[in-house]
UniProtKB/TrEMBL annotation:
Encoding gene, per UniProt annotation: Dyak\GE19783
PANTHER family the record matches: ANKYRIN REPEAT AND BTB/POZ DOMAIN-CONTAINING (PTHR46071), ANKYRIN REPEAT AND BTB_POZ DOMAIN-CONTAINING PROTEIN 2-LIKE PROTEIN (PTHR46071:SF2)
Stretch list, region Disordered: 262-287, 863-884
Organism: Drosophila yakuba (Fruit fly)
Protein name per UniProt: Uncharacterized protein, isoform C
SUPFAM superfamilies: Ankyrin repeat, Histone-fold, POZ domain
Location of the BTB domain: 690-752
Amino acid sequence: MFAVPGESALKQSKSARAGLQLSVGRFYRWMTDARLGKFIHEYAAVYLCAGIENLLEEIALQCNGSTAAALDQSIASSGDVWGLLQPFAHLNAGRVASGALALPRWANSLDQVIASSGDFRGHLATCVGSIRELKEKALRTQQEFQLAAALSGSALAALFYFMRCSQLEHTELLAASGCHSGQAQAAPGGGTSSAGHHVQELCYERAYVVLPPLAEWLRVAAAHAEHRNAMMIDKDDVMQAARLLLPGVDCPIRPVAHDEELPTKKTHFNTAPTVSSTGTGTGSSSCSSPVVSGIGIGIGEDTSELGRRATIGVAFKLLLTGRAELLAQAAQLLPPTTRYDTQNSAGLTALMIASIRNDEVALHALLDAGCDPNVEVPPAGSAGYPAIQPDTQHWTALSFAASRANYVALRILLERGGKVEGGARSSEEKCTLTPLQLAAGTGNLEIVALLLAHGGNAFLSTQQKDSLCFAGSAQKGCFCAISVAAAHGHRSCLRKLLTHPVSPGTRDVLSLEEMLAEGDVGGVRGASGPGGAGGPNSASASGNIEDILPLLNKTQIKRLQEAMYHSAENNHLDITIELRKLGVPWTLHCWMHALSAAHDLRLDAVIDQLLQDFLQVCPDDYSAQFVSECLPLLFNIFRNKNEGTTLLLADIFATCFGWETLPPVKEQPPMQPVQGSRIDPKFVNNPELSDVTFRVEGKIFYGHKIVLVTASPRFQSMLSSKLSEGSSTPTVQINDIRYHIFQLVMQFLYCGGCSSLDVAHGDVLELMAAASFFQLEGLLRYTEARCSEMVDVDNVVAMYIHAKVYNANRLLEFCQCFLLQNMVALLTYDDSVKRLLFAKKIPNHDVLAGLLQTLQNRLKARKPNSGGGLVNSYRSPPVTPVKK
């Protein structure tokens, strides 16, 4: 469910709300930058992102292996995805890498097509010799693939233009002549018929490798027809399909109120007609193919409805001339109840079409004749209006003019009584768009100013608040115009919307400052602390905008937070920072996105500015988003920034970690009897009963195999190799360990614990190395505990390195906690910590990655309310040490 109710929607990404892995915000930003449309709705980005993600999943599912070669082979043999992934300007659909044709799998099951027809070669035809042949193959393909829309006569002619092959055409003419007489007949004038005369025709024929199969032609054309809820595929649908499928072919976009083709009685809706050899569509031929049943049975049978549509179409042509005498004739063709406000099958009035065309003459004529500028497009699914687009429901002529940035039409409609909010009402919930929202999306500052001057409400949102409904089931309105401008990256429009006076309903016009003075005062001032981006040292966003917006009420704060959310999601950093300077409170999500964008753009000053706002966004509940997304981002920035930025980040890490006393590493509990003392401690270095000796620093040390072999795998390996040499009392050479340290190791083994050990501070690290070498876990735990008591700012780096080298993981974690808690002090103390963090290379170990993992584990384990949260812990930092 994408429509997350309440304020929680602003606390998670659009991708998380939609259940997607790819970034919806990045798709939205690309769509606006690539100008896919003047107004990009949020759902358009969601569906495009979901479509691409599903396509990638489909490709992964088709791949039988996990290697790159297997993936390439899977794509190369798939007619569904190979063409999609080619770097062509056109869609090379219906082919595999070898150039062979393939049927689309998702149009219908290929097995069902083969089982029902027995032959699917006609669906893969790339060229034909006559309209008769094309019609038969098209009808069969439509039936097999269950395409709802049928081809009109003009669409069939247009499709034949692109699929015509002169060689096949002449071959068919030859076959037709032979079928009639079997002989070449003399033509009038002494010439010969085409059966015996080869002509080099001057026509452009495309290469076979770029010709799409008939199934793809019909699938793409039918998609265009179904999008506009049409009952037939017309010529323009075929032209749009050619624009997508053929290289070098282009055509204009389909105009609004395009003449709709109506089916005739003798079309291929019910049954296929018999066609003469000339391909004209009338008569009969002994060589024609069997009759093929059409799939459009029942379409176009309501002659009264077809007549009504045709009559309205003729009347609209008369109305749009703008001539008074023709308007009177048009009135006779229109229903007396609606007259000039009659709507066509798409729910459009003649005034709406005139506003789309920006036809000043027609607008004046229609308004003078009494057209209502506030007629709305009916809701989707209304009876009698089958071609309504859900995107335009409840739109008025004013909405269409604003969407096309038609200033003249907009001004005329506003002056003649058009409602500035279109079909939207503040007291009603309608799934629609206001003219101001549309203008903010297009970025036309002149249109925005005109609508604001007539009372447009920049804070009006048309989003529905039904939290129990799936958001993808229908259009759900749109956020306010301020958020639209922020989402599209129109900074100038955003400033205009923020600085213009607001008209609250029908009351007197108040300035925004006067209206906001009645609201909540503390929200914004509390959000702009001295260290924040909205502090007194911040630069002015634009002119006197901060003077106009010193106070915000709760509703407008939510609207501006929503605008900040969309600007941050869509990577418009400049707008996000500007809204912050106005005093809009941060959310963790917006702050994190802004910080990531500033890091990508290498804007160090902005990064420092954002880091100073950390206390205003740090969560007391240590949310999963903060731990899993925000902390890795902070550590990534920490790796390669200047000293000032690293100190800010170090302060943040210490703040997150807290100032509670670090628990020391505990020693291992006393050994179990099985692992306890094997022999009396008096036998340590005692030649009595000794069956093995060690040479340490040139001195002999006596030992007993029964104690040593069971102590650790290391001793067992050492003694086993000596026993194989056949010596009765083997001698083992010990290097790199002092005699005194080796004696402590033996005392630990013979005593079964560390209680009797007396280790000096200077010997602890060396004893740790010996414990690690001999794989004595209990002794290693003892040295870790002793070292944790000795850690301070002078030796933490040495302790950290020893802990990593000798696999003292508990001491390593303790050192990481010490570094996190005292990072600011350590970075300003000397350069050893800096070298450890940024310069020193430890094999198979990343120091910063270890610190990140430790901090994440700390926050996950901490209870939400323990310690008073981050803010309270921040207020009691430790004393910064001073180097002697």
